[in-house]
Design brief:
69% helix
């Protein structure tokens, strides 16, 4: 949906380079452990920098509530609605 930033692309490249370097070392060597630690730090930087996404369910609930409020407002210009029944049409957040 959104284009990757330059920083995110560089982090992806560094993570991939470190993963490629892992194949050159044995799993029991110190270098392997150092590379794994570096990968975990890079991954942590990548996840901290990315913005939190809004779930599609939440976006749909908000859009439905806005539509409902606008529809009820337009409907009420012509007819009278009790306040209790109008509020029951709104979706409850989970």
């Amino acid at each position: 949906m959104f284009a990757k930033s330059i920083v995110e692309s560089k982090l992806d490249a560094e993570i991939q380079a470190a993963l490629d370097e892992l194949s050159n070392h044995e799993k029991t060597s110190e270098e392997y452990g150092t590379i794994v630690e570096r990968i975990s730090k890079l991954h942590k930087l990548k996840t901290e920098g990315s913005p939190k996404r809004v779930s599609p369910d939440t976006a749909l609930a908000v859009a439905a509530n806005i539509f409902g409020v606008l529809w009820l407002t337009a409907y009420e210009t012509e007819r009278v609605i009790k306040a209790r029944s109008a509020l029951s049409h709104l979706l409850k957040p989970r």
